[in-house]
Amino acid sequence: MEEVMGFDRSAHLINELLQGMEFAKELRNRIMNPENKGCLSDDNDDQVALNNSLLEKMLSSFDKTITIAKLLHIQLPLHPSESPHSLTISSPISENSHPDDSPPSKRRRVMMRKWTKIVKMSSERGVEDGFSWRKYGQKDILGAKFPRGYYRCTHRHTKGCAATKQVQRSDGDESIYQIMYRGEHTCFQGAQAQFDDIIPAQMKSEQQPPPSPKEQEVYVGLSPEGELKVESEQEPENRAQYFRSLSFTPANLQVVQPDPIESYLMSYCSDFDSPTTSVSNYLQVLPYNHIGLTVETSGTEFTEAVSGPNSVTNSPMMDDFEFPIEELLDFGGNFSFEL
DNA sequence: GTTATTTGACCTTC
DNA sequence: GAAGGTCAAATAAC
């Protein structure tokens, strides 16, 4: 398992984000408290130059972040059978391979959004993701040392929430659990209360299901679900939304030094259900102080999904990377996470 | 008494 | 028929 390599890049990615946020904090302090920065003795031109310099550093950090995210994406296996992350691609091919003309009844399960996360925890119940789950089954899986647990949202009957997840303990490292999520929560109230701490008020009125990504470009932003996303593709209007939401933390970010052994989360998301071939990379900020790198792919054919236009190399990210600093400065909430 | 978990049976898909 | 996924009755926990 190439966890070390993945961690290195993930750590670089996070470090770049944190560096950018430090620049943002400094810029905010300069703007909000000019008297504390000795600006009374500086002329306005110097102040503007310094602020511009900080802004350029922020943009550079986020640029690097996106580049690292792209590198992570490029390292995706071309086919499940070639995956070094043997646990990360567990979805049976049969679920991806329904032809478009399949009867609806045959595609019932396939229509649900699906993604996978790998976590290193001491117990199956050690992972909190902000939702409440009820176990409804357990099954021995062929070739697997440990049984697979089946969970569905507690609000399935009361609110009709169709979200489910499967928890599979790794054969190799018993402290690693693969969690495969299927479907999206429609019971959002439960999680909403917990996201309140990390989603700026401005975001709350804008929440909507994550859009279907398109092609070619990579963007960073916070999804309505509270996920900091590095999107390879995004509709422009949603891109604006995500960038606006990128303003969520910098001023009062609390950084918990990462412990790569205990809390590193590397997530590999597979969405085999979409008929599109789009790919998105998610840097996922989970509630409960976890952060994981999640790569979500969507497509009817996995190889096609990762080897198509999304095997990015030289996309003009800076040309498209906009950062509304005025909104960045608006948000003053606390947010802490660990790697 | 209510809610959550366990587990064998059944269903779906290939 | 095999394997994975879900249901639902029985059981446990609170």
UniProtKB/TrEMBL annotation:
Its main location: nucleus. Residues 122-185 form the WRKY domain. Keywords: DNA-binding, Nucleus, Transcription, Transcription regulation. GO terms for molecular function: DNA-binding transcription factor activity; transcription cis-regulatory region binding. SMART domains: WRKY. GO terms for cellular component: nucleus. Residues 83-96 have a biased composition (Polar residues). It comes from the Eukaryota. It is found in: Nucleus. PANTHER family: WRKY TRANSCRIPTION FACTOR 30-RELATED-RELATED, WRKY TRANSCRIPTION FACTOR 41-RELATED. This is Probable WRKY transcription factor 41.
